[in-house]
Amino acid sequence: MEATISLILEIIGTIAFAISGIKLAAAKKFDWFGAYIVGLMTAIGGGTLRDILLDTTPFWMDNGWYLTVTGLSLLYVILFHRQLERIKSTILIFDTIGLALFVVIGIQKTLTFDYPMWVAIIMGTLTGAFGGVVRDILLNDVPLIFRKDIYGTACIAGGIVYWLMIVCNAEPLLQQLSCAFTVIIIRLLAVKYGWAIPVLRNND
């Protein structure tokens, strides 16, 4: 049952991240193939780095669903791009959902390898944020996590909440939901109210 839930979360997260990457690629006038690659790298980049660090086979190599789901996400954007354009902050919404779900997945998987919670929080942050780093590099942008936006910080906060739920002996589902909602709420509030990490100044 738990494995099924994890797979569902990964597929939903893949769709969300893939759409966010494809939409940004479309804004840069990429062709369909280029948009697919950007969407795919956004979706699998973080999980691939996590699995390499955990010394296990990258998750997408054991299941072709992720490549197919990215293709279906591209098709969805092609067919319904006008409807998506009517939704304000479409990219933000999909990116935030993907970020939250992949933080949860990264923490879960790391804990199954019996690593301590602090390692799991780092891995969850990498799982959620690194795909966006690859996406932004492919799009020739400064990665979002390195700008003043509250992004990686939201992942860490979600991981801390996950740990607190474990300490409180909460049900696994509550642990996961608490983590995901923390990431989503912090990210959306940060964008709405302009919260930001101070920029490092060069005094020269």
H/E topology pattern:
HHHHHHH
Envelope shape:
globular
How far apart are the first and last residues' alpha carbons, in Å? 58 Å
**Count of discrete alpha- or pi-helical segments spanning 4 or more residues:** 7
Mean pLDDT: 89
What kind of sheet is the major sheet? none
Stretches where pLDDT is under 50 for at least 5 consecutive residues are: none
Indicate the proportion of strand residues. under 5%
Structural class based on helices, strands and sheet pairing: mainly alpha
Describe the structure in your own words.
The chain is mainly α and 204 residues long. The chain contains 7 helices and no strands. Helix 1 (2-27) crosses helix 3 and helix 2 runs parallel beside helix 4 (90-112).
Features:
7 helices; 204 residues; mainly alpha
What are the SSEs and their pairings?
Blueprint: H1 2-27, H2 32-53, H3 65-86, H4 90-112, H5 117-138, H6 152-167, H7 172-193
Helix pairs in contact: 1-2, 1-3, 1-4, 2-3, 2-4, 2-5, 4-5, 4-6, 4-7, 5-6, 6-7
In brief:
The chain is built from 7 helices and no strands.
